[in-house]
Amino acid sequence: MDDKIVKPEPPLGGPPQGSRPHAPVGDGCFLGEEMKPQAPSYKEALARIKNWFRANSLWVMAYGTGCGAIELRPLATARFDMERLGIAMRPTPRQSNVLIVSGYLAVKSLKRVIRSYEQMPSPKWIVALGSCTINGGMYWDSYNTINRLDLYLPVDVYINGCMPRPEALVAGFQELMRRIKKGEADGWRHYMENLDWYKENQKKIITDWDLPEYNW
Amino acid sequence: MTETRERSKEVQIWFGPQHPGITGNMSVQTWLDGDTLTRGITHVGYLHRAFEKLMERRLYIQSFPIVCRICVPEPDTNEWLLASALEELSGLDREVPEKARWIRTLVLEMSRLGAMLMVLGGHAGSMGLGPAPQWMIALRDLVLDRFEELTGGRVYHMYIVYGGVRRDLPEGFAERMEQTLKTIESKLPLIDDVIFGSAVFRKRAMGVGVVPREWAFEMGISGPVIRAMGIPKDVRKDEPYEKYAELDFDVVTEEGSDIFARAMVRRREIQQSIDLIRQILARMPKEGPYCAELPNMLEWTIPVGQTYVRAESSRGEMGYYVVTDGSKKLRRVHVRGPSYVHGVSLLERLIPGTNIADLAPLMVSLQVCPPEIER
Amino acid sequence: MSPSELSLLPKLFWVVVSVVGAIAYGLVIGGIIRKVMARIQGRIGPPVYQPYLDLFKVIFQRTATWHGYMFYLGPVFRAAGAIGLFLLIPVVFGDPRFDNFSFNGDLLMVMYFMFFGCLGMALGAAEGGHPHSVVAITRGLSQMTAYELPFSLAVVAIAAQTGSFSVHQIVAAQQGGVGHWFLFTNPLAAVAAFLAFLGMNMYSPFDIVLAPQEIPIGPPTEYNSAFMSAMMSGRAIFGVAKCVLYMDLFLGGATTILAAIVKVFFIYFWSIFVGAVFPRFRTEQAVRFFLGWPTAAGVAAVLAVMLF
Amino acid sequence: MKEILKEIEERFGPIWERVQRPKLAQVGIEPAKAVPLLTWLKEHRGYVTLVHLSAVDWIEQGEFQLTWLLGNPETEERLMICSRIDRENPAAETVSGLWPQAVTYEQEINEMFGVSFPGSPRQGVPFILEGWKDIPPMRRDFDTVAFVEKHIPGREGRKHIDTRTYIGEKFGEKGYLHD
Fold it and tell me: Nearest C-alpha of chain B: how many angstroms from C18?
């Protein structure tokens, strides 16, 4: 088994990389004619409308993958009430858009999470909670937990902390909404385009791979 | 041949891990015949983080951030168990100051209260009763606020350390705690009406998931499950630790051993916890040190020994089996959670004959906490 | 009053308007339900227009899963059943624009369409192959047969009282004041029918079909994207159509749009307020419930009409 | 607790014993006599509860220690029965006939330490791990850090523990605006 990461890492959607090309900040007429802001074409306008609807109706898959799920309960209930932001829990992956990876992922869990993620219809986003998904956190030396989620699944928003407070979750969701509205949150597209790379990483860590190549 | 035909009538259904009715990230593989489950196998390991392995390569003081993550709803029991086991083995337990003992009792009881509030909500939620879990979790949040004030953390506290606790009670804590308790108490009658007064809840919960009395001792059942059988077993009474011997309370028991009885035990223990917190705050010494003089924690060694300490968590008897070998690190720690018995052996024995609709309420009533099973 | 007062094209136009209006109103009611439930639970709740956002969002989703034609036809059947049901019931009594296609004997058709949508949904969902769908379908069909019994008895009682199987005639018989409503003139039938309505609307304690904690989430488990939106709009119009039917049968119909909206709202919220504070029944408990007092009330209503 | 320890010594020969707490005693016994002792304690002395079954790896002595913890629900006394088995091809007698829940404990120890319990059901069935190919992970000679470095890629950590130096290197002097 080759243990180095095979290909150079593709740019990832999450904040830790932040290498996605952005529009120039100060675009205006004085920068030249080609930089002049133009009215969006029909396609772009439609995409914007679509993204606006998507951002305002996020359906979270009810899968508490780790201990971060305990702060999802205050978030979903009377005190923080995520439903006022249009975020609702859906019990089945077929109808969800957002997968919250709430903390560390054991290898056994990772397999199920991959399966659930691939069953979700596009566009879909991943919110990763806690330091464990970023670099292993508390369990960096544990033989059964992955140390870095974005090698296996495209992460759109990381929320750090152990565990992140509900306020941090709300802020993370608002960040996700902002990115969706701007059309930046396209981890799912990145996953499709680099499926081989992701699959290679996944198969390296899941030793008894018995999943199909893509779980429709 | 007949067996094949029998089996072919059954539908295999995976209850979890991605399932809103399951208690945490675990799964039960069940076989369904009509509406009745014929057998089930518990699958765990989705949350295995190898706590016991990691603690073997951490210093004693470094084990605290790890240990509280074993059970998320109620982390303080774990902290106390590790602290008390190692204090017992190192002889430090004679030096724990009086006030620290009171504060520890307070923290343990607060965490029991918070966990109990959440589980009683889960009882209702697993049957599809919407408002009660929402209210209960909001009430639990009030307890978490007090925890935040006391320890700095909402969920993970890392507050109990060797020789005492990490810091003193903040000023005016008792008054604010009393306010919180009053708020919780004022809402409890409403919750009684909605949960226990509901005819549908009674119909669903009574006579379902009955654990036979003969299994009680042989299987090592503990906590609300055994108290719902009418057997007054409570570690806080049987082997009183910290200040529980000085507190005035009775073991809550109910008859029936079904889901309703377990919910009722939890409901009455919420009241009991509230009373206990009041007693603790009233009798706690105002002055005094909150932590013993500690040796240099980076160089601390504990002589060879092994022990088993236990405490009453909201789920039942939680125990730590700790082995030291004279070095700076633990030789072995084995976490004996009540869910280990409740969630695997007992659940698998209870599943045959259960209606599929009753599996989620049954699991909630056993209060299965998967991180405790696999650690 | 004959339904063909308008010629065909304007009639079609008003039919489309009323169907779209019913969907829109059903979605708004869905939003209000979520808001009300949130307030009961002590939350702020989503905005009232949230179901619209959800509906458009699911339309904008993509899917590449394939479960066969029957699977895809399920939501279509359901929506067709709902629209068919809605089109047979006069919404506003005496207004040819919102009279829809009411004709003599349409009550039988109405009963048929109520069954048809659910059966089509069951067929399609079973094709998805998810065991939860199959379990939910058996649950749903047994509950449906159970609540259909008191409902049919109530309808028979009312038809016997009026002497007609036409919704139009039934509404006409109730005109002339609140006291003429069948809610008051035949309270036994009303009791049977309104208890059956709880099961028909599938809010708790009778939400055994969706039951997220048990069989998440039943028939729609495998549905997504546009099929999901068809189901959502089908559910919206079905809910409104049922309420309109109840309004016509028991609350004297409506003579203005505003009266229709208000009455539909109250009928709908009868099941919501009951459902807000109850857990869910088990399947056999739900069946037993409907075969108990509601059926007894229905039988008593029929007997009362026959005897007196 | 003294009486029961004395009685065990009389019946089962020399044992290692220790009273840890008033209600907790420890007994060390050779592996062949362990299960007869457990049976006797359960059948005749009221220690009917198996609280837990655990294993400890004493790699220096080349031994595994198995610890059965029994509980007496009437007196609330706990008795810890320890027994050391050889580390090479470790095997022990099963108690799953006495206590049904012992199956799970034995399954877990089999998976985590590689101790086999012949006759116990579910031996060799994965309980916690999935697709594990290395040596049983709870053994002392299994190095989890080496395993992680070999198999689980992580994010590159920072070179300095000092935050200020790290931020300065990464973002230049402008990195920390609030001095």
Answer: 34
